[in-house]
Design a protein that fits this description.
homodimer; about 425 residues; alpha+beta; OB fold (Dihydrolipoamide Acetyltransferase, E2P); BirA Bifunctional Protein, domain 2; 2 domains; 5-stranded antiparallel β-sheet; 10 helices; 16 strands; about 25% helix; RNA binding (chains A, B)
Chain lengths: ~425, ~425
């Protein structure tokens, strides 16, 4: 007999079906017991009148009759069951997986992730993550973008110089890529519009709630833009697609409205609004104040800050042609935190040579990258969204580790 | 004026439009010249009567009138153009990008990949790759699978012990993951059905046409299977979805038919058919002979070999309960080469302990992985498809490097 998922049981009322899943909970009352079975679609209640109940996390197959029961989850329950145990647990779970709130602290959850993630609330976070990525891709697929998979092993630690992981690569030193930045720009010359969903690596020596040693970066780059505003328009569409995809899969918790026009402030305006301290960057407190301002004045949980000072942006950043010292780079703040960094890039070979020279950087490590610009590149720009950071803001998780599958950090390299 | 793509020009016959792209080729005739402009959608022919023609790979914007012209590519050409150069190349391409066949050997192509990949034939290979991944995902999304992103940094070199890249991880040694095998199995306990598209790393010391140091692995794992045959059925659907996706995007070259029932041979039958040499594995010559057999006898370019000897499969492989010494593991051969490895896995904790013990392996490095089985896991199995190998077979490329974006191998770590 083929298996029926818990969420589909109502369609089978009055009939005998087979379900399969994990024993989520046993509830023994005076004259009857309930076995709650968990599968990938939800929970099913099985009414048991006699015999032993298999312990929590046993894998079972249950053949029984579906009957309507207004009190049961989903409005149906299974009666007169024949229960087959497919697999018995050798150990009890580290905490009760059936409690509505996770009854364990974060270190316990992370140490026991292979079983802890079975908790419906923790599983839901990863479902939100998957739905977000699906919405990201669908939006870009619909806009003529091509998906790419770029090398994660690179010959030199170019982009920032610091915080890279060295790899013993057949006897010489390679580095784990900190971002697909150079590759996605080069591929604009091939496909005009590209995206990548992939791991990036940061040897981040700080133990904070917002940094991971590996995270999933959602990278976009597009050519033939007027300036950074065309990039921001694509980002707006992508965010909208991600939110709709999460909503479509039934995770409506705390989803933001993505306004048609996300409010945008120039860096100098942002500074004036939050107290100009002369720093060429925004402090976390200023980011929070700007998010509050956008919500108050524009009803938006998103706010763009454009025109960051050139001195704080990477060498490939396109300057604002009208405001010396300022760039066509932007950040997107979401719920008080920087979520996305992006901007227009330089596209002329001579501009790259000048930018590297100005920063006192040699040309040789960038040879392959620069060759793309030597052969004609259009005005272009792009952005990167940190997936775990996005999910942690969406699901209101205080620590980005709660949005990652088996997070890696300064201290954690397993499970 | 908003930009029109080359492929959409026929819809604008009689009107003035603006296109943008790269100068693909200049053709000077006696009384007229043609400028062929390449964009992400194809080529457009511009008729030029006077003035200098910008060199190949210049980035241009052309405003002109669309007129029907049966001889022109796409049946239209652009006349009375106003040409704006957005970006000038600083160097000539390493070879002519407009020749129908790539006029360069593989090392030249790889050394100059950032510009070489602009050649339509090379770009098409990467488009086939993207379309394949899209079909892979769509098939699994439609079958209740959840996409995951697993760690690429792991604490021990468990799965094979050899061919791993060591990483300096905050002063201790980590390793680049050779596959998401353990993670995807653990996640069966959470989502039942999962997939991942991501990089895997093999410190492959051999310089062959079929090995890469990094490749893209399409990984699938599903629970509640009867045995490996349920896994093979999902693989068949996935392959069909991949082929249809490539066909849908217009790449019909050499696409195989995926039969409703892919022919399958037991390992012992495969050996008997190709000359039993007593070896517990198939030689490349035997794989080719089996592919020829399947094509001849069943008209299929795919053939399954099931029941590989346990001794040649990893410790987590489920044995065939009816044939001691043989496994529920399979390979899928495609056009003479192993394309997919998969099978049913052990699912009981005690079986894992016994399997490790039998191979003389310690339990400690597997602690996190084993904990999933200690807490109840269903019968499950899965498979992995090497994306570059798939694309190289589809597009009939003799070297897998031709199907990779910026390949990494024993000697190559750039561009």
């Amino acid at each position: 007999m083929s298996r029926v998922l818990s969420a589909a049981l109502t369609e089978h009322a009055g009939h005998s079906v087979t379900i399969a899943g994990w024993v989520h909970r046993r509830r023994r009352l005076k004259s009857v017991s309930f076995l709650i079975v968990r599968d990938r679609a939800g929970l099913a209640q099985v009414v048991v009148h006699e015999g032993e109940l298999p312990p929590e996390e046993s894998v079972v197959e249950v053949t029984a009759t579906v009957v309507a029961s207004p009190q049961a989850p989903g409005g149906v329950e299974l009666v007169e069951p024949e229960i087959t145990v497919l697999s018995e647990p050798a150990q009890a779970p580290p905490f009760d997986l059936f409690r509505p709130a996770v009854p364990a602290a974060l270190p316990t959850v992370l140490d026991h992730a292979p079983v802890a993630l079975r908790h419906p609330a923790l599983r839901a976070v990863l479902e939100i993550s998957g739905a977000s990525v699906s919405g990201f891709r669908a939006t870009l697929d619909g806009a003529g973008f091509t998906e790419i998979h770029t090398p994660k092993l690179v010959a030199s630690a170019t982009e920032s110089g610091a915080n890279v992981f060295p790899v013993d690569y057949f006897g010489r030193t390679a580095y784990l890529a900190q971002s697909p930045q150079f590759f996605k720009q080069m591929m604009v010359g091939v496909f005009e519009r590209v995206y990548e969903v992939g791991p990036v690596f940061r040897a981040e020596p700080h133990d904070t709630a917002r940094h991971l040693a590996q995270y999933t970066s959602l990278d976009v780059e597009l050519g033939f833009v007027r300036d950074h505003r065309d990039v921001m328009a694509v980002l707006r569409e992508v965010l909208s697609g991600m939110v709709e995809s999460v909503r479509h899969r039934g995770h409506a918790v705390g989803l933001p409205h993505v306004p048609q026009e996300i409010p945008a402030l120039h860096f100098t305006e942002a500074k004036a609004l939050t107290g100009d301290d002369g720093e060429p960057d925004l402090s976390p407190a200023q980011e929070r104040a700007l998010s509050e301002w956008a919500l108050r004045e524009h009803g938006s949980e998103f706010v763009f800050v454009t025109g960051y000072p050139m001195v704080k942006r990477p060498f490939y950043t396109h300057p604002d042609p009208d405001r010396p010292g300022y760039s066509n780079g932007f950040d997107l703040l979401f719920r008080g935190m920087e979520l996305v960094t992006g901007g227009q890039r330089l596209h002329r070979y001579a501009d790259y040579l000048a930018a590297l020279d100005e920063r006192g950087e040699p040309v040789e490590p960038y040879e392959g990258y620069l060759s793309a610009f030597a052969h004609g590149m259009p005005p272009h720009g792009g952005f990167a969204i940190g997936l775990e950071r996005w999910v942690s803001r969406l699901a209101d998780l205080p620590n980005v580790r709660q949005a990652a599958l088996f997070p890696r950090d300064l201290h954690r390299l397993s499970p």
